[in-house]
Specification:
The complex is a heterodimer of chains A (about 230) and B (about 250).
Chain A (H helix, E strand, L loop, with lengths): L1 E2 L14 E2 L2 E6 L6 H14 L4 E5 L7 H9 L5 H25 L3 E5 L2 H10 L4 H7 L8 E6 L2 H11 L16 H23 L2 E4 L4 H17 L7
Helix pairs in contact in A: 1-8, 3-4, 4-7
Chain B lengths: L12 E6 L6 H14 L4 E5 L7 H9 L5 H25 L3 E5 L2 H10 L4 H7 L8 E6 L2 H11 L18 H22 L2 E5 L4 H12 L21 H10 L4
Parallel strand pairs in B: 1-3, 1-4, 2-3, 4-5
Helix pairs in contact in B: 2-3, 4-7, 8-9
The chains are: A alpha/beta (about 230), B alpha/beta (about 250).
């Protein structure tokens, strides 16, 4: 059973105290390999007979299309962007994650509120304000953090190419996108490391090949999942 | 950025109107707007739920009934944030008069009526500059329902609070939900420095009161040369006062 606990005041409309499922957040910066790890982990767990749902940013039917559209024009200021993502997060929580937890499934969240907060903090938003807003989020059973440094990270980006937002294009004034990426990612990684310590996350070294990263993640999450009621399987 | 500090130095003036639909607040703001323009003041008008970036998402959410109390609250905050960043703050920095049809108090009232934590909503909007003048146009519940019913073909799902499950019946739900909002507004008037205007009195008398309240804020506000004001607006307060004295309204 998962105790329903929120970071701040409980939001309206959620009346359960306990949920049979498990909520596991996989955190990590852009391009670190979260989605690949989650996809492998999902297959692995499903093969074992667990019900698994994954949910990633911008996939909310309410907000997803709106964010994508707004990001094209690079018109978003940090506060609006953050509130867009907060809406997206909440919509996915109510629509996807919560029902899955009620149904006794494993929810693999591809990023949680922490990435959203880190992005806004490096863009100058107040940490206190962000913690107040994201008080609506349910405390996950476990957070696994894929840790990497900017120098190793950038090597994975080279082939797929650089992204405006991942390189802090909206707030930095670096001449090259490479410099922007390095500055922005270093800042973001620093924020995430602070959070990892503060919230006591399980930290996985994400510099190695994907098989190694997956194995570390698997070892980290299995105790959480194996504690679930057997009839959930 | 989100700090509560640096609002004090803003040279502009922020005037906001609040009230439930049918209270006449938009009409009053419009009349104020015309008067200020006729006097040569530079004004910026902003309206609730109108950000070009966010509006479409809110619309889709309403049309497909995708919104719940929390997502309703968050998406409206996103809309407001976008307008604050692109419209309201720059205009206040430029030292002009900003006229807002609905402000943060709309969210405070509606979201609380939907059961969202009051403290949380106030924190959510802490990036909003406090207004220099906030006017609440108060109408009793029965009167506002009569006005809306007269003006609309039908009451909308979210304005009736149908997402709250208060009643299966649209009319009944609307009455219950608007009643809750009125209670929230009443409490807000005590909590904040909001001036209550009796919207049951004549339109012209209300406007005279509004202009009286606004006038002290106009000191130091930049004015355009009157020659640049469209002639059809060069009427001013005098004619309105005359018409009030003449007993119209």
């Amino acid at each position: 059973m998962t105790q329903v606990e929120f970071f701040g005041e409980p939001p309206p409309g959620i009346d359960q105290d306990w949920l049979p499922g498990r909520l596991i957040a996989i955190e990590g910066t852009d391009g670190v390999g979260r989605s690949t790890v989650i996809s492998i982990l999902k297959d692995y767990l499903e093969a074992q007979g667990w019900g698994v749902v994954d949910s990633g940013l911008r996939r909310s039917p309410l907000v997803g299309p709106g964010i994508d559209q707004a990001k094209v024009g690079h018109t978003l200021d940090p506060i609006t962007l953050n509130l867009f993502y907060a809406t997206d997060f909440w919509d996915r929580f109510e629509r996807i994650m919560l029902p899955a937890l009620q149904a006794g499934m494993v929810v693999l969240a591809d990023r949680y509120i922490f990435s959203l907060m880190a992005r806004a903090i490096v863009r100058g938003a107040s940490r206190e304000w962000l913690e107040q807003i994201y008080g609506f989020a349910m405390v996950p059973d476990q957070v696994v953090y894929l840790d990497i440094d900017a120098e190793d990270l950038v090597l994975r980006i080279l082939e797929r190419g650089f992204d405006y937002w991942e390189s802090g294009g909206d707030y930095l004034h670096e001449v090259s996108i490479y410099d922007g990426f390095m500055v922005h990612q270093r800042e973001q990684l620093r924020e995430m490391s602070l959070m990892a310590e503060r919230y006591g996350w399980d930290v996985v070294d994400a510099r190695g090949p994907i098989e190694e990263v997956f194995e570390q993640v698997r070892l980290a999450v299995m105790p959480t999942i194996e504690g679930m009621p057997q009839d959930a399987r | 950025m989100v700090t509560s500090a640096d609002f004090t130095d803003l040279p502009g003036r922020l005037i906001v109107v609040e009230g439930i639909d049918g209270s006449g607040k938009s009409t009053q703001l419009d009349l104020l707007h015309k008067w200020l323009k006729s006097e040569g003041y530079v004004t910026v008008f902003t309206e609730w739920n109108s950000s070009p970036i966010v509006r479409d998402t809110t619309k889709r959410g309403k049309r497909k009934q995708l919104l719940t109390p929390m997502s309703f609250s968050l998406i409206h905050a996103a809309d407001f944030a976008s307008r604050t960043h692109e419209q309201i703050l720059p205009a206040l920095q430029a030292g002009v008069i900003v006229l807002a049809d609905r402000y943060v108090y709309t969210a405070f009232a509606r979201d609380a009526a939907r059961g969202v934590n009051r403290r949380w909503v106030r924190d959510l909007y802490s990036f909003a500059p406090p207004p220099n003048l906030a006017l609440y146009f108060h109408v009793p519940l029965d009167e506002s329902i009569r006005r809306i019913a007269a003006a609309r073909a039908e009451i909308k799902y979210y304005e009736a609070g149908m997402d709250m499950g208060l009643s299966e019946d649209l009319q009944e739900s609307f009455r219950l939900f608007q009643g809750r909002i009125l209670e929230e507004y009443d409490a807000l008037c005590d909590e904040y420095d909001i001036t209550r205007i009796d919207a049951a009195q004549s339109l012209v008398n209300q406007q005279l009161l509004v202009r009286e309240l606004v006038e002290p804020l106009l000191e130091d506000m930049p004015k355009q040369e009157l020659s640049r004001v469209p002639t059809h607006l060069q009427t001013g307060l005098a004619s309105l006062a005359a018409s009030a004295a003449g007993g119209s309204g």
